[in-house]
Write a structure and sequence with these properties.
This protein is 92% helix and 0% strand. It is an all-alpha fold.
Length: 51
């Protein structure tokens, strides 16, 4: 049960930190670059799967 609580606390704190970072211009730029990189990777995997 303790491991579950620790994992849950980690997930919640991660969301809170991400929310706080997203309120700054630098944080928004970071998440924008991260999202673009993830989308590029996802599209590459999709294209490779289709072939």
């Amino acid at each position: 049960m303790g491991k579950f609580v620790a994992a849950l606390l980690g997930v919640v704190s991660g969301f809170v930190i991400a929310h706080v970072l997203n309120e700054t211009p630098e944080g928004r730029a970071f998440f924008s670059r991260s999202r673009a990189t993830l989308e590029t990777f996802t599209e590459g995997v999709k294209d490779a799967y289709r072939q």
